[in-house]
């Protein structure tokens, strides 16, 4: 087996483990770029609009989602939870880059180690002082 094939197999095994652990706990959608630490341990990909930087303008007066009225706005939950976290509270205000859909289904743990999750679109550095 070649080195790249064994690397691919190891990454797939890690991705499966990540899905098994993070799916039931946080509803992880395996976006490959985890930002849970900066969102009060609330997965932003569970927002029906997959917004990464806060709520849309459609939050209802009672705090529920305009797309799914049966659910509370993911971003209200994220804010409330982040206020209670002993760590990373200040990270809530970070500007998170747009999600890279090419990483969908890959392991955020692997992408964190390789640095792939920190690659941003051209021009992002200028837009994010
Ligand atoms: S890897 Fe992405 S989809 Fe999974 S918990 Fe983290 S932010 Fe949510």
Summarize this structure as a short list of keywords or feature phrases.
129 residues; mainly alpha; 4 helices; 0% strand; binds iron/sulfur cluster
Portion in helices: 25-40%
Distance between the termini: 45 Å
Oligomer: single chain
Structural class: mainly alpha
Radius of gyration: 16 Å
Point out poorly predicted stretches: none
Write the layout of secondary structure elements.
Layout lengths: L2 H24 L47 H11 L23 H7 L9 H4 L2
Question: Could you characterize the architecture of this molecule?
Answer:
The protein has 129 residues and is an all-alpha fold. The protein has one domain (3-127). It has 4 helices and no strands. The chain starts with a helix and ends with a helix. The relative contact order is 0.17. The mean pLDDT is 92. The structure holds iron/sulfur cluster.
């Amino acid at each position: 087996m070649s080195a790249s094939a064994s690397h691919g197999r190891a990454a797939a095994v890690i991705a499966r483990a990540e899905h098994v652990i993070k799916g039931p706990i946080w509803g992880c959608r395996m976006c490959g770029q985890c930002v849970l630490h900066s969102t009060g341990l609330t997965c932003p990909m569970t927002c029906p609009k997959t917004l990464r930087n806060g709520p849309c303008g459609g939050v209802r007066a009672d705090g529920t989602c305009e797309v799914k009225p049966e659910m509370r706005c993911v971003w209200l939950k994220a804010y409330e939870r982040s206020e209670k976290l002993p760590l990373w509270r200040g990270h809530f205000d970070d500007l998170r880059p747009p999600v890279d859909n090419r990483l969908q289904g890959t392991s955020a743990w692997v992408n964190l180690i390789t640095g792939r999750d920190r690659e941003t679109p051209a021009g992002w550095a200028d837009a994010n002082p």
